[in-house]
Design goal:
The structure is a single chain. The protein is of the alpha+beta class. The protein has a single domain, classed as Pnp Oxidase, Chain A, CATH 2.30.110. It is 17% helix and 38% strand. A hairpin with an 8-residue loop joins β9 and β10. The structure holds flavin mononucleotide.
Length: 208
Protein backbone atom coordinates (compact mmCIF):
# COMPACT_ATOMS: atom_id res chain seq x y z
CA UNK A 1 0.00 0.00 0.00
CA UNK A 2 1.26 3.48 -0.87
CA UNK A 3 -0.27 6.39 1.03
CA UNK A 4 0.10 10.15 0.64
CA UNK A 5 -0.80 11.30 4.16
CA UNK A 6 -2.02 14.63 2.78
CA UNK A 7 -4.94 12.80 1.12
CA UNK A 8 -6.26 11.36 4.40
CA UNK A 9 -8.76 13.06 6.62
CA UNK A 10 -7.37 14.11 9.99
CA UNK A 11 -8.58 11.14 12.05
CA UNK A 12 -7.27 8.56 9.58
CA UNK A 13 -3.93 10.38 9.32
CA UNK A 14 -3.65 10.41 13.11
CA UNK A 15 -4.43 6.69 13.39
CA UNK A 16 -2.03 5.81 10.56
CA UNK A 17 0.88 7.76 12.05
CA UNK A 18 0.26 6.63 15.62
CA UNK A 19 -0.18 3.06 14.38
CA UNK A 20 3.20 3.02 12.70
CA UNK A 21 5.34 4.79 15.28
CA UNK A 22 4.92 2.16 17.99
CA UNK A 23 5.29 1.40 20.81
CA UNK A 24 5.50 4.96 22.14
CA UNK A 25 6.57 5.51 25.74
CA UNK A 26 4.18 7.64 27.76
CA UNK A 27 5.26 10.76 29.60
CA UNK A 28 2.87 11.26 32.48
CA UNK A 29 3.48 14.95 32.91
CA UNK A 30 2.89 16.94 36.08
CA UNK A 31 2.99 20.73 35.98
CA UNK A 32 1.73 23.64 38.07
CA UNK A 33 0.28 26.95 37.00
CA UNK A 34 1.58 30.25 38.34
CA UNK A 35 -0.80 30.07 41.29
CA UNK A 36 0.49 26.60 42.14
CA UNK A 37 -2.56 24.57 40.98
CA UNK A 38 -1.36 21.12 39.92
CA UNK A 39 -2.01 19.42 36.60
CA UNK A 40 -1.37 15.87 35.43
CA UNK A 41 -1.82 14.39 31.93
CA UNK A 42 -0.31 11.64 29.74
CA UNK A 43 1.58 12.38 26.50
CA UNK A 44 2.82 9.69 24.13
CA UNK A 45 4.32 12.09 21.59
CA UNK A 46 7.31 11.87 23.88
CA UNK A 47 10.94 11.06 23.42
CA UNK A 48 14.51 11.22 24.64
CA UNK A 49 16.45 13.46 22.27
CA UNK A 50 19.76 13.81 24.06
CA UNK A 51 21.57 12.36 27.07
CA UNK A 52 24.17 15.15 27.14
CA UNK A 53 22.50 17.40 28.03
CA UNK A 54 19.76 15.04 29.23
CA UNK A 55 16.78 16.30 27.24
CA UNK A 56 13.29 15.03 26.56
CA UNK A 57 10.53 16.30 24.28
CA UNK A 58 6.79 16.27 24.75
CA UNK A 59 4.53 17.32 21.87
CA UNK A 60 1.26 18.92 22.88
CA UNK A 61 -1.66 19.23 20.48
CA UNK A 62 -4.73 21.40 20.77
CA UNK A 63 -8.10 20.65 22.34
CA UNK A 64 -11.01 22.24 20.47
CA UNK A 65 -8.55 24.76 19.05
CA UNK A 66 -7.26 25.76 22.50
CA UNK A 67 -3.98 25.14 24.28
CA UNK A 68 -3.80 22.29 26.75
CA UNK A 69 -2.98 22.98 30.39
CA UNK A 70 0.35 21.15 30.25
CA UNK A 71 1.64 23.53 27.57
CA UNK A 72 0.28 26.64 29.27
CA UNK A 73 1.83 25.63 32.60
CA UNK A 74 5.17 24.56 31.11
CA UNK A 75 5.40 27.91 29.30
CA UNK A 76 4.34 29.91 32.35
CA UNK A 77 6.56 28.22 34.94
CA UNK A 78 9.31 26.55 32.87
CA UNK A 79 9.06 23.30 34.82
CA UNK A 80 7.59 19.82 34.51
CA UNK A 81 7.98 16.29 35.83
CA UNK A 82 7.80 13.17 33.67
CA UNK A 83 6.40 10.32 35.78
CA UNK A 84 7.15 6.91 34.28
CA UNK A 85 4.01 4.85 33.62
CA UNK A 86 4.30 1.30 34.92
CA UNK A 87 1.48 -1.19 34.50
CA UNK A 88 0.50 -0.76 38.16
CA UNK A 89 -0.48 2.89 37.56
CA UNK A 90 -2.03 2.59 34.11
CA UNK A 91 -5.60 3.24 35.27
CA UNK A 92 -4.54 6.44 37.04
CA UNK A 93 -2.64 7.52 33.93
CA UNK A 94 -5.72 6.95 31.79
CA UNK A 95 -8.01 8.76 34.23
CA UNK A 96 -5.71 11.78 34.22
CA UNK A 97 -6.26 12.23 30.46
CA UNK A 98 -9.77 13.49 31.24
CA UNK A 99 -10.58 16.77 29.52
CA UNK A 100 -11.22 19.19 32.32
CA UNK A 101 -11.00 22.80 33.44
CA UNK A 102 -7.51 24.12 34.24
CA UNK A 103 -8.22 24.14 37.99
CA UNK A 104 -9.41 20.50 38.05
CA UNK A 105 -7.13 18.37 40.27
CA UNK A 106 -6.21 15.38 38.11
CA UNK A 107 -4.14 13.82 40.92
CA UNK A 108 -7.31 13.45 42.98
CA UNK A 109 -9.41 12.40 39.99
CA UNK A 110 -6.82 9.76 39.04
CA UNK A 111 -6.56 8.52 42.64
CA UNK A 112 -2.80 9.13 42.86
CA UNK A 113 -0.75 10.91 45.47
CA UNK A 114 1.24 14.09 44.86
CA UNK A 115 4.64 14.08 46.52
CA UNK A 116 7.21 16.89 46.51
CA UNK A 117 9.86 17.00 43.82
CA UNK A 118 13.47 17.77 44.73
CA UNK A 119 14.30 20.77 42.53
CA UNK A 120 11.14 21.78 40.63
CA UNK A 121 7.71 22.90 41.83
CA UNK A 122 5.41 20.38 40.13
CA UNK A 123 4.79 17.40 42.40
CA UNK A 124 5.58 13.83 41.39
CA UNK A 125 3.16 10.90 41.32
CA UNK A 126 4.18 8.97 44.45
CA UNK A 127 2.94 5.68 42.96
CA UNK A 128 5.22 5.95 39.89
CA UNK A 129 8.51 4.04 40.15
CA UNK A 130 10.67 6.67 38.43
CA UNK A 131 10.47 10.40 37.77
CA UNK A 132 12.36 12.92 35.67
CA UNK A 133 12.32 16.46 37.04
CA UNK A 134 12.92 18.86 34.17
CA UNK A 135 13.20 22.51 33.17
CA UNK A 136 11.85 23.77 29.86
CA UNK A 137 14.56 24.89 27.44
CA UNK A 138 12.59 25.54 24.24
CA UNK A 139 9.02 25.40 22.95
CA UNK A 140 8.91 24.86 19.21
CA UNK A 141 5.66 25.35 17.23
CA UNK A 142 4.77 22.80 14.54
CA UNK A 143 2.90 24.53 11.71
CA UNK A 144 0.42 23.03 9.26
CA UNK A 145 0.52 23.98 5.56
CA UNK A 146 -1.70 27.00 6.13
CA UNK A 147 0.57 28.32 8.88
CA UNK A 148 -1.68 27.38 11.78
CA UNK A 149 0.21 25.98 14.76
CA UNK A 150 -1.05 22.44 15.28
CA UNK A 151 1.30 21.28 18.04
CA UNK A 152 4.00 22.63 20.30
CA UNK A 153 7.08 20.57 21.07
CA UNK A 154 8.35 21.21 24.58
CA UNK A 155 12.07 20.54 25.04
CA UNK A 156 12.98 20.01 28.68
CA UNK A 157 16.32 19.44 30.39
CA UNK A 158 16.27 16.72 33.04
CA UNK A 159 17.72 18.21 36.21
CA UNK A 160 16.93 15.48 38.73
CA UNK A 161 16.05 11.78 38.52
CA UNK A 162 14.27 9.51 41.00
CA UNK A 163 14.30 5.72 40.58
CA UNK A 164 12.88 3.16 42.99
CA UNK A 165 15.88 1.64 44.82
CA UNK A 166 14.63 -1.87 44.01
CA UNK A 167 14.99 -1.15 40.29
CA UNK A 168 18.40 0.49 40.35
CA UNK A 169 21.95 -0.81 40.45
CA UNK A 170 24.47 2.05 40.71
CA UNK A 171 25.85 3.80 38.83
CA UNK A 172 23.29 3.56 36.05
CA UNK A 173 21.59 0.21 35.53
CA UNK A 174 17.76 0.24 35.54
CA UNK A 175 15.78 -2.99 35.73
CA UNK A 176 13.51 -2.57 32.69
CA UNK A 177 11.45 -5.65 33.55
CA UNK A 178 10.83 -4.30 37.05
CA UNK A 179 9.97 -0.85 35.72
CA UNK A 180 7.25 -2.62 33.70
CA UNK A 181 6.61 0.35 31.40
CA UNK A 182 3.42 0.73 29.42
CA UNK A 183 3.51 2.11 25.89
CA UNK A 184 0.88 3.56 23.59
CA UNK A 185 -0.23 2.14 20.27
CA UNK A 186 -2.94 3.69 18.06
CA UNK A 187 -6.45 4.44 19.29
CA UNK A 188 -7.20 2.71 22.59
CA UNK A 189 -4.28 0.27 22.22
CA UNK A 190 -1.45 -0.15 24.71
CA UNK A 191 1.51 -2.49 24.99
CA UNK A 192 3.46 -3.89 27.91
CA UNK A 193 7.04 -5.14 27.82
CA UNK A 194 7.46 -8.28 25.70
CA UNK A 195 10.58 -10.39 25.16
CA UNK A 196 13.88 -8.76 26.07
CA UNK A 197 17.12 -9.56 24.26
CA UNK A 198 20.62 -8.19 23.73
CA UNK A 199 22.16 -7.54 20.35
CA UNK A 200 25.94 -7.12 20.15
CA UNK A 201 26.99 -4.12 18.03
CA UNK A 202 28.66 -4.96 14.70
CA UNK A 203 32.43 -4.91 14.47
CA UNK A 204 33.89 -2.10 12.40
CA UNK A 205 35.06 -3.75 9.17
CA UNK A 206 38.84 -3.59 8.64
CA UNK A 207 39.95 -0.77 6.32
CA UNK A 208 40.69 -2.02 2.80
C1 LIG B 1 -1.92 7.45 26.67
C2 LIG B 1 -2.26 8.84 26.21
C3 LIG B 1 -1.34 9.56 25.46
C4 LIG B 1 -1.63 10.85 25.02
N1 LIG B 1 -0.70 11.53 24.29
C5 LIG B 1 -0.95 12.80 23.90
C6 LIG B 1 0.04 13.52 23.17
O1 LIG B 1 1.15 13.04 22.90
N2 LIG B 1 -0.26 14.81 22.80
C7 LIG B 1 -1.45 15.40 23.13
O2 LIG B 1 -1.66 16.57 22.82
N3 LIG B 1 -2.39 14.72 23.83
C8 LIG B 1 -2.17 13.46 24.23
N4 LIG B 1 -3.11 12.77 24.96
C9 LIG B 1 -4.35 13.47 25.36
C10 LIG B 1 -4.12 14.33 26.62
O3 LIG B 1 -3.67 13.54 27.70
C11 LIG B 1 -5.45 15.00 26.99
O4 LIG B 1 -5.81 15.93 25.95
C12 LIG B 1 -5.40 15.71 28.32
O5 LIG B 1 -6.73 16.10 28.70
C13 LIG B 1 -4.51 16.94 28.31
O6 LIG B 1 -4.52 17.46 29.60
P1 LIG B 1 -3.98 18.89 30.01
O7 LIG B 1 -4.88 19.94 29.33
O8 LIG B 1 -4.16 18.87 31.50
O9 LIG B 1 -2.55 19.00 29.57
C14 LIG B 1 -2.88 11.45 25.36
C15 LIG B 1 -3.82 10.72 26.10
C16 LIG B 1 -3.52 9.42 26.51
C17 LIG B 1 -4.54 8.63 27.30
Amino acid sequence: MEIDPATLEARSRHLLMTGLVVPRPIAWVSTVDQAGAVNLAPYSFFGLVSSAPPTVIVSVGKRAGREKDTLANARATGELVVNVVSRAVVDGMNASSVESAPDHDEFAFAGVTPTASRVVRPPRVAEARAHLEARVTQIVPVEDDDGTVANHVIFARVVHVHVDDALFTPPHRVDARGLDPVARLAGLGYAAMGDLFDLPRPETPPAT
